[in-house]
Design goal:
This protein is an alpha/beta fold. It is built from eight helices and eight strands, in the order E-E-E-H-E-H-E-H-E-H-H-H-E-H-E-H.
Length: 238
Amino acid sequence: MPFFERESVRIYYEVHGKGFPVLVLAPGGMRSSISIWEDVPYNAIERLSPHYQVIAMDQRNAGQSTAPIDETDGWAVYTSDQVALMDHLGIEKFHAAGMCIGGPFIMGLAETVPERLVSGVMLQPIGFDNNRQTFFELFDGWAEEIKPLHPSMNETGWTKFRSAMFGGDFLFNVSEEFVSNCQIPLLVLMGEDIYHPEVTSRKVVELAPRATLLERWQDAKDADTASETILSFLATHT
């Protein structure tokens, strides 16, 4: 099983298929990990690997990946893992496809390495819409599971970490102003629930200069059409 290690961070990853690289960023909130792709309407690994080199990863402290936790942690540490993995694999330019928390992860890459991110597919991105307590509870459930592995973190530290992840507005990690200036081509597949508000998907497309919205994709009857739309979008920007 492939692991990428740097300092005390150990990231589990998989590479599927051949071709232009696509980094896929799984749903699941703080539990974002490869296995979750098997249980969602669009399995990015299955759909993309016949056409592209797909790099999938368990985010830190999810799935098989581990890392220390500090009260100063936030979105930036996840972005640094993602970029470091691509560096480790010798990949300079790449697409990114992310579901749920993968949407903000893509925007973190757009902010940090815009010269390397060729395009982004955001499937039902999470966002703020009077739902902060929902995300705090999601974080707390994950934290309770892994607290025994991080005894040096006190409750104040966990609260700071939680606020760094979900205390912001819009996409939690970037502002509306940033998205309005983002020149990365984006395809947004619309969300429609408390974790993935429809208003967030629509706002990203309204703001981003090179964004397109796909409204129907989750039902089985729409799955193949949505997959073809994603493949066409990636091909256009490869």
